[in-house]
Specification:
Number of domains of chain A: 3
Strand content of chain A: 15-25%
Oligomer: heterodimer
Largest sheet of chain B: 5 strands, antiparallel
Radius of gyration of chain B: 20 Å
Largest interface: A-B, 15 and 16 residues
Radius of gyration of chain A: 25 Å
Strand content of chain B: 25-35%
Number of helices of chain A: 18
Number of strands of chain B: 9
Number of strands of chain A: 32
CATH topology of the largest domain in chain A: Rossmann fold
CATH class of the largest domain in chain A: Alpha Beta
CATH superfamily of chain B: Galactose-binding domain-like
Largest sheet of chain A: 8 strands, mixed
CATH superfamily of the largest domain in chain A: Peptidase S8/S53 domain
Helix content of chain A: 25-40%
Order of helices and strands of chain B: HEEEEEEEEEH
CATH topology of chain B: Jelly Rolls
Structural class of chain B: alpha+beta
């Protein structure tokens, strides 16, 4: 059913029945102009949906094929190859990813712009998943052609997603080898068994106008983006007063990032729902309950709940995953979402992995529900180059549908500094970002660390004894990008060695110091430019060859953001340190399979200091989702792609030259009206090494280990924290009360041109 | 006759407590007869009580249990004690003078707001002079229940002790009373006396 929207000239809109004639009331010239524009758009949309033409025009010829380039994992190399899997190996959850015609894609993007334009009659008139398919999806005839081809190849087609962008099917490895000319092999990678295609798949060329590819033909799953607390006494950390750590508890979070005025005013997330996306069930719901009890949330904010769901969707495509090794991530997500929005309902949504990440299956099913959740947080990641072009498009389409439905999608930026293809190891694949977080449709959440210790101000910002609810933070604390690498400038300054060169921290004693303390690993908040959302890497895992990033969204224009033409991440940040500078997050996860009792993986006692400790952008993302819940409660509506408002807030604060009063290093003297704390101290530069197939984004300066750099030949550190927007921290970290209280004014300041979809 | 009724009223009030005697009474036991001080936590604190629950930070007094949304203190009272120690048991107790061999009635109201079990158990034990009155483990969430027991004191002082652990939620305790009760023989004598009085009165009126 197609709808048109009729402005009533007083800022609201009424829905007419399909084909119904609108009645335009007397209005001002300006308002009428908007009304007519909206009408034109509405009618254009309707007309578009009615005149959608077929994309598949040629007969399917198995001998006329196209290669689906850019869809082979970097691990799929002869050194890891252990031969083909048997043809009868079942492969479930295979997905053909579809693309729209250029006309349909443009129409959807225009509509999304209107949905986010406060001056449009379509503002916040969110679509349903099915409406997206009906208005902007491929024709049913084209979809039937693809389904027929899959069936003829021996596959069983399970479903077509309501937004018409995915056809899910299943079969066995023999079917895949014959249909896509891409045999699936057994791999052994770092001691773990996997399956993956060794070459890019191909398909009949006739299908290519509609079919972008198969999302995944491998079982590599995304990384959970949490890092255990640094072991006491390890690393360059020499401890603080007493040699111990400060864990961040819920009360600390509320103090540092100024949640308390909101809580006092009753803005606590009551009536809101935050969904954390997982591929595991919670290990023990009691972990969440005792977290809230010990942190002092349950008695003060009694409406906070946690529910475990396995959303089936219309085609019952969600297998219950039980609880698996990712349940630590699931626990962190619910613990810290409830800390930011303590009266909100937290939903942990999970499906079992197929060849697709189970979390995406859960999310896709949730988006088809009659009332989809309005806030989603995802704490998993995989680099764009490793995802491959088809999987990147799958993710982009999924998030695109989400924002068109009014859902705000928060995604961790990654825990690998600017080297997401290296899975946390020393960087050898150059600058890469996670495809889970680089789309234009999600809010990418990066990570910072507390800079009190490197600034010698630990006692200024943390009391040595806890107050009520384990509160030790005194105020806002100066921040630096979260960076556990020996290549970081703060680490170098702290130990008194150069940041680069043969005598640097990374190369000291032949690299032994850094290696023994894990400082060569790319561990810290990710941030960088989108570089391989489409195209094919010349060197697997590297953003080169024909790789290209997502075009820069029009809303991503703010002081500090480079004119690089691509989507840059992250958008915002929050504390994500895991203890290098003495501060980490406590979370309650009692699963003994995830760690030792000494590490805190046991039933949680009354003192969170004994619990498991973490850092990672998997903590900062659900907290930002919690902030969104506070915004939604205060404003009484959902906001879809909140970047349109966050960047308006950023522009108001930073203007054309930044705002020195909001510099994070001011700590407790930072401006009271700052919406973002502008992180300017340090960097997210990681250590790098020459890779197997070359040296990428690595300035070695004649040493064994270099620093991740835009250039191999000169030092262009990737990346320093700078005034305004920057790659390590985006717009900065949050003053939660100021963000929520400034939200409505920022919306009013949005210029339509700043949110126009390209 | 008026004198006889007055005597009876006094006897009953002394033995069973008077439900109309005082507003802060617990379970109909007057504050004078109730051996428990601060029986309904009407001071808004755990004063008069002792034990680790008074200092460990996981117990206190509230005016309604937020974990059991909508619940209020027992039977219209203003306050209730919440008890929710984590990882180990704690105690809340009061010691009072008793007479060895005498009978006592012990009553208290108890609520559990969160079902426990597995890694995060709950347990609640009530003892009177070391004798177990109630012992529960991993009870399900439920509203208030009034428990009533009759025990014989064994010494000149007796301690009523509540021992609990509730990792996920809290027990709510309210309206605690301990009062001396007549021995069964006393009731028998009293009943005989009453029958005699009634017989005498009947004879008098029948004349």
């Amino acid at each position: 059913m197609d709808y048109v929207w009729v402005s009533n000239c007083i800022g609201s809109a009424k829905q007419s029945t399909p084909g119904g004639l609108p009645v335009i009331k007397p209005c001002t010239r300006a308002l009428c102009a908007f009304s007519l524009l909206s009408l034109a758009l509405g009618y254009a949309t309707m007309a578009h949906s009615q005149s959608r033409s077929r994309l598949i025009v040629d007969a399917v010829d198995e001998n006329d094929r196209v290669t689906l380039a850019g869809n082979t994992r970097q691990e799929a190399v002869p050194a890891n190859d252990h031969g083909r899997v048997s043809d009868d190996t079942p492969l479930k959850g295979l997905q053909v990813v579809l693309r729209r015609s250029a006309e349909s894609e443009a129409a959807l993007r225009d509509t999304i712009s209107e949905l986010h334009n406060p001056k449009s009659a379509l503002f916040h008139k969110w679509l349903t998943n099915a409406e997206i398919g009906q208005k902007f999806g491929p024709s049913d005839e084209d979809i039937e052609t693809v389904k027929d081809w899959l069936a003829s190849a021996g596959f069983h087609v399970n479903l077509v997603s309501p937004d018409k962008m995915v056809i899910e099917f299943e079969g066995d490895a023999g079917h895949v080898a014959r249909a896509f000319h891409a045999p699936v092999h057994n791999l052994l990678v770092d001691g773990r068994s996997h399956i993956a295609n060794m070459t890019d798949p191909s398909m009949p060329a006739a299908l290519a106008p509609l079919v972008a590819g198969v999302a995944k033909l491998n079982d590599f799953m995304p990384r959970t983006l949490n890092v255990h607390r640094a072991a006491a006494g390890s690393g360059i950390r020499n401890g603080n007063a007493g040699g111990g750590y400060f864990f961040i508890g819920s009360a600390d979070l509320a103090t540092i990032y100024n949640f308390n005025p909101l809580f006092a005013a009753g803005i606590t997330g009551k009536g809101q729902t935050i969904v954390v996306i997982e591929d595991t069930n919670q290990y023990n719901a009691g972990d969440f309950t005792i977290f809230r009890k010990v942190m002092g949330l349950s008695r003060t904010y009694p409406y906070g709940t946690m529910t475990q769901v396995n959303p089936a969707g219309a085609a019952d495509t969600c297998a219950n995953p039980g609880d698996n090794s990712d349940d630590t991530e699931a626990a962190i997500d619910v613990d810290w979402a409830t800390s930011a929005a303590p009266n909100a309902a937290i939903v942990s949504a999970a499906c079992a992995d197929t060849v697709q990440f189970g979390g995406f299956l859960a999310m896709a099913n949730l988006l088809t529900e009659a009332t989809p959740p309005k806030i989603i947080s995802i704490s998993y990641g995989e680099s764009e180059a490793n995802d491959g072009a088809a999987q990147n498009l799958y993710i982009n389409n999924l998030y695109q549908s989400a924002v068109a439905e009014g859902v705000s999608v928060f995604v961790s930026s990654g825990d690998e500094l600017a080297a997401s293809s290296d899975n946390g190891n020393v960087a050898t694949h150059g600058i890469t970002v996670s495809g889970f977080t680089s789309t234009p449709y999600n809010i990418s959440v990066g990570g910072t660390d507390m800079a009190a210790e490197p600034l010698g101000e630990l006692s200024t910002y943390f009391n040595s004894t806890n107050g009520a609810n384990f509160l030790s933070a005194v105020s806002y604390v100066p921040e630096t990008p979260w960076n556990d690498s020996c290549a970081g400038s703060l680490v170098a300054a702290y130990v008194g060695l150069p940041q680069i060169g043969s005598s640097s921290v990374c190369n000291y004693d032949g690299g032994t110091l850094a290696s023994n303390n894990g400082l060569l690993n790319a561990s810290g908040g990710s941030g960088g430019p989108s570089g391989c959302a489409t195209g094919t890497s010349a060197n697997r895992g590297v953003a080169n060859g024909t790789c290209a990033g997502y075009p820069k969204p029009t809303w991503q224009s703010v002081f500090g953001n480079p004119a690089d033409g691509v989507r840059d991440i992250p958008d915002v940040s929050l504390m994500a340190g895991n203890g290098l500078w003495g501060v980490y997050y406590a979370a309650c996860i009692s699963d003994p399979r995830d760690g030792t009792a000494a590490q805190g993986f046991e039933p949680c006692g009354p003192n969170p200091a004994t619990w498991a400790g973490f850092g990672g952008t998997s903590v900062s993302s659900p907290i930002w989702a919690g902030i969104q819940a506070l915004v939604n409660q205060k404003t009484g509506q959902s906001w879809g792609n909140s970047n349109t408002v966050l960047y308006a807030l950023g522009n108001a604060e930073y203007g054309s030259s930044g705002d020195a009063a909001c510099n994070s290093t001011l700590g407790n003297a930072i401006g009271k009206s700052c919406v973002f704390n502008d992180v300017t101290l340090g960097d997210n530069a990681g250590a790098c090494d020459a890779g197997r197939s070359g040296t990428f984004n690595c300035y070695l300066d004649g040493a064994k280990y270099g620093i991740l750099s835009v250039s191999n030949s000169t030092e262009e550190e990737a990346y320093p924290a700078t005034p305004g927007w920057d790659f390590p921290s985006g717009l900065g970290t949050a003053n939660a009360a100021n963000i929520v209280n400034s939200w409505t004014a920022a919306v009013a300041s949005i210029k339509p041109a700043s949110i126009t979809e390209k | 006759m008026r004198k006889s009724i007055s005597i009876i009223a006094v006897i009953f009030a002394g033995l069973l407590g008077s439900p109309w005697a005082k507003a802060d009474s617990c379970n109909g036991v007057s504050s004078g007869a109730n051996l428990i001080q601060n029986c309904s936590f009407g001071s808004g604190t755990l004063s008069s009580w002792s034990g680790t629950a008074t200092t460990d930070g996981w117990s206190g007094v509230d005016t309604g249990d937020p974990l059991a949304i909508g619940s209020t203190p027992y039977n219209g009272l203003t306050y209730e004690a919440y008890l929710g120690n984590i990882g180990a048991t704690d105690t809340l107790s009061q010691t009072f003078a008793t007479t060895a061999g005498e009978h006592y009635t012990i009553e208290f109201a108890l609520l559990n707001d969160t079902t426990g079990g597995g890694e995060y158990p709950n347990s609640f034990v009530a003892t009177f002079g070391g004798a177990t009155l109630l012992s529960e483990v991993n009870t399900a969430a439920d509203g208030y229940t009034l428990y009533t027991y009759k025990e014989i004191a064994t010494g000149s002082s007796t301690t009523l002790t509540f021992t609990e652990e509730n990792n996920l939620g809290d027990f709510e305790l309210d309206s605690v009373s301990v009062a001396q009760t007549p021995e069964p023989e006393s009731f028998l004598l009293l009943g005989t006396g009453l029958i005699a009085l009634a017989g005498a009165a009947r004879r008098r009126f029948s004349r």
